[in-house]
Amino acid sequence: MLILNSPQVVQETALRWKRESKVGLVPTMGALHEGHLQLVRLAKTYSQRVIVSIFVNPLQFGPTEDLDKYPRTLEEDVAKLEALDVDLLFAPSPKDFYPPGFSTRVRVNDLSSVLCGQSRPGHFEGVATVCLKLFQTTQADFAVYGEKDFQQLRVLQQMTADLNLPLSLLPHPIVREADGLAMSSRNRYLSTQDRKRALAIPRSLKAAASQARTNRDLPVSHFVQLTRDALAGEHLEIDYVELVREQDLRSASPETLLREVKNPRLFIAVRAGSTRLIDNLSLAEESS
Ligand code: AMP
Known about the structure:
By secondary structure, the protein is α/β, with parallel strands linked by helices. The chain is 36% helix and 19% strand. The chain has helices spanning 7-17, 34-46, 74-83, 94-97, 116-119, 123-138, 150-162, 192-197, 200-214, 220-232; strands at residues 2-4, 23-28, 49-54, 88-90, 142-146, 168-172, 237-245, 264-272, 275-282.
């Protein structure tokens, strides 16, 4: 596996590869877990050349967020990617990727301002900017994104369509621990007690999905309240619980019946101790 930190060298390498093969990209912030590795495996089924990027992107962290505390485990990450036979690891430093004078920002309106966009102002601008730069640097024909960060996926789909970017985005379902908790690099910061409490997140999503299967004539407010109660019962500090349409990520009004919501998806963001956790689940009829 090549390990490179220069955007120019990565671009030259990718342009060479593209004469013979499609190039797939899996963007990450490192501290790799099985969820990331499944994205890599999916990428490998679509092309001979797979690039993984590891970059803890300062642009997407707010001033009071965990940029400095974010786990960095490069040595272990390299071993995991080598075992999967990844072709290239692009691991730039912030100075490699944002040299002095870097001044461009990409903003995707509307989709960036709801859900996590409300509690993390500027977050999706940082995400869109880094991803467009990663797409250009790696010349990727496709990039794989996890539905764990469903809003990120929707923002990037919108950017890709709006700017006619010549790449496709492949979604990957959420990868969970055996007990249901969505895998996340931040899970390692949970205390034993918070780790147990956090199980209320997947449990409440599953309970909502199970009710959605049996009765689609219940109002949106019912599903939101059910979920909020289950989370509050475990003393998780709720940032938001919202039932939204996948297309625009806008909340359906509380009295709307579930069956009237097109592609409904339930989103949760909570704090367990000082760790922010997110999760989501489709409540669409066909996903039940
Ligand atoms: P991150 O390193 O957290 O920025 O994540 C990099 C990519 O991995 C993103 O596309 C995430 O959505 C995806 N990802 C992270 N955790 C999971 C998971 N548990 N299941 C599926 N995809 C994931």
